[in-house]
Amino acid sequence: MDRDNNIPRFDWDLSFSTVVSSPSTGTDAIGAIEFDPSGEILATGGIARKIRIYRLNSLLGTSRDDDDHVESCICTPAKLSSLKWRPDLTGRVIGSGDYDGVVTEYDVEKGVPVFERDEHGGRKIWSVDYTLRNGSVLGASGSDDGTVQMWDPRNGGLDETVRPGGGAAAICSVEFDPFGGNFLAVGCADRNAYVHDIRRLVDPIFVLDGHTKTVTYARFMDQHTIVTGSTDGSLKLWDIANGQRVVRTFRGHVNSRNFVGLSVWRHGGLVVSGSENNEVFVYDKRWGEPVWVRGLGGQTDRFGSDRRFVSSVCWRQADEDWCTLVAGGSDGVLEIFSGIRN
Fold first, then answer.
1. Which residues lie across from 251 on neighbouring strands?
2. Which InterPro entries match (predicted)?
């Protein structure tokens, strides 16, 4: 809480910038939103079996309602649950995890697949991530088959397979330490999150036990803290440098059954979560209550009686003094919010 008035303070003037309506006539729930490393290119994927690529500067400040302003569009063979840009600088390549259990990498400029892995036995992949280590790119995927797999995309070889917790519970989230460390954070349907040392993917070095339902997301806030999200309706901030303890629990959003998205903006110390009442909730890591709440367009009421919900969220990481937040809905609509420090 704020030391002066005991009220959570929001240090950013965040406001609506533009909406990008779904060009599809059918179901088009957005399952993934990802900025490329430059922060200039935005990719989305989901139920529509398409990866849509946008240039951020062409979207800000205008309303879009068709495909005319999509930079490029890649059709995929299956529904997509996750997207992640490869961190190497050899080309513009994005990786995807799909409902058929396949990881596919696409050359965005050519719109063609350049790499494919099918190692999860046809079980749905919920999350993919990459890290760049000593000039080599490592990839990881988590699946309904209860395994995390790590590989080197250069040769397609399977490096490691691990079952966090030792069971068959679905793996919902994987993320490498974005600060260059050796950790891999894993969110699991067994109600726990796990932190593994990628140099020896055997037993976890930390077990984050505190949620009462599936852990859908695990994200690094910094080298020492991790944020987890769960269908128990809470987010938790964990200190993994001092006994893997819970520093703070965030509540306000609604989440009991769906993937609603979770993203951290490390420059600003902010966490954003979607919600099943079709609202976006922003939390400051210093306080457990939300500091900013915004309903997506077309919302009927706070209880989401039209059954639409926020299904994915993403912060742009590139700037320190300017923030950009993108939220995607179960109806396929994107909304972009921008702000400056107060």
1. 234
2. RUP1/2, WD40/YVTN_repeat-like_dom_sf, WD40_repeat_CS, WD40_repeat_dom_sf, WD40_rpt
Amino acid at position 297, single letter: G
Question: Domains of the chain by range and CATH?
Answer: 12-341 (2.130.10.10)
Q: Which of 121, 148, 151 lies closest to 139 in space, CA to CA?
A: 151
Its pTM stands at 0.91
**DSSP 3-state of 227:** strand
Q: What per-residue string of b and e applies to 249-286 under the rule 16 or more CB within 10 Å gives b? A: ebebbbbeebbbbbbbbbebebbbbbbbbbbbbbbbbe
47, HSE (Cβ side, Cα atoms, 13 Å): 17
Contact yes or no for 97/81 (Cβ under 8 A): yes
Q: Are 47 and 82 in contact (CB under 8 A)?
A: no
In degrees rounded to 5, what are phi and psi of residue 186? -130, 130
